[in-house]
Amino acid sequence: MFGKILDIYENNVLVENINQTIDTNLLNIHVVFQDEKRKIVGEIIKITKEAFQIILLGELHDTFFQNGILKVPSIHTSCRIIYKNELEMLIGSQNYGSKKTLLLGNSIQYEGFKITLNQNDFFSHHFAIIGNTGTGKSCGVARLLQNIFYFNNEAVPVNAHIVLFDVYGEYHSALKKMESIPNIHMKSYTTDTSDTEGELIYIPPYFLDVDDLAVLLDVNDSSLLPILEKTLQYVFIFKSTDPRSLAYKNDIIAKCLLDILSSGKNSTQIRDQIISILMKYHTEQLNLDSEIVQPGYTRTIRQCLNIDAQGKINAIQFVVDFLSEFTKVELESGIIGDDFVYDLEDIYYALEFALLSEGTLNSQAMYEKANSLKVRLHAIINSSMRQFFEAKKVLSKQEYIYEMFQTPLKEPAQIVNMNFNYIDDRFAKTLTKIFSRLFFLFATDLTNRGSYPIHIILEEAHRYVNKDRDTEILGYNIFDRITKEGRKYGVIMGFVTQRPSELSSTALSQCSNFIIFRLFHPEDLKIISSISANVTLRDLDKLKTLRPGMALAFGSSFPLPVIAKIDLPDPTPNSSNINISKTWYPNEKNIV
Which pTM does this prediction carry? Predict the structure, then answer.
């Protein structure tokens, strides 16, 4: 079959075709150039009656394959088809019942061979699964997850923590069957209030910090962040009955009123604003009926605000002196305790006062900008979104995470499916960011780093992990941060998308492994070619002709780019295309 080497140029070798036949079954088959010291691997890329054109890929060592060629074979080196034990170094061990090995699919080049990879190498790095609609992407994701649990004869991964953000609610059926495996459980959360197969998604409002509120309220100006910081301080002050908090409460109310008194507005405006504030924000010591004692008489604050015939508040100095007595404390940072509980109404109540204390009443421009926070929060409280922020019980953040990965019987739940099908894209994006940040902060607070790995898989990732203004407003994008820092803490991202060109380039560039189904869009192909040195333009050309269910896989877990035919999951997700014929002609039989 293989004769002598005819020519060597760049990374290509021409080998004589002794049989002078064109056997297309040999295309893309691997060969080995072997001498006494080295085994160089090549792939047959073209066959003529005269010669085989072979591209050089790397070298085989005793137990592994090394990509890249330092030195081409000599002209006298013999060529042969790769042996089975050598092939396993390229496409993975055929012992895929091992807990070290993850089954991906079937080789299309070598009949009867499987494509496998090192499970630890794949799931300890961020990854992306990409492909056009209808190419088998959802089935591929479901099959990959099923393979983790189905084909493991040594042990089941009982300590796995996989969160799947399920945009269309299509994975529940594909994952539920895994509960038939001993000690394996799937937990469902849903945004559908009528769904009896899952718990309603919720985030306790007292978990929300400044960054979370900024995302929830769609803040588009970083100058509004100090107002949210004050809001969270004030929500504690207004709800707490602690004596220290009472002093703070009197202080911030008094300072707000003093700002109004010195605003330069007319007497009627000053009186009306102070009365309006004290009717809503008051304490036992500071309210409209608080008495101001002066030599010879005593009057309440309300009485001191009376306007005389000349349109003046004659007793205004008495009010200023009285309020000044309350402004002798300094608000400490970090005064909110970890076990402090509040709801959205408490946040709204505190936010209104934070707007007042920031002087927004004295600045029309600032008022209009900051008032959007109040409008958005009010809209959430009075909409169906409110139900997702109603805490069922008091939990710490750590307890909340642990409970998320437990069944009602306190058994470990290895897969958590989050069904976002019943909320709009903007709110789904908000929840995804808040949850992802919650997982990341949980992992970074663990004493034993990486002891509780969490894998976050985002369906339709281009909707959420995109080039938004988070970095400009908050100083970071949570998905970019996780992809850059999360791996050392055990927080791993998996992006599933049909439009990689719309995905954050920072997040995508941090992925180490890629499973790519058929792609057509030039911009997407350009992105794929630029994100990894492990794939060539020759490999990417194959993407345009892949059949549904076939994928090009490459990255740090793959010695070489390989094409795998991924088996259909059992059961499949609810992601199949609509059958127009059956829908249009409901009374016809045998319509395919």
Answer: 0.90
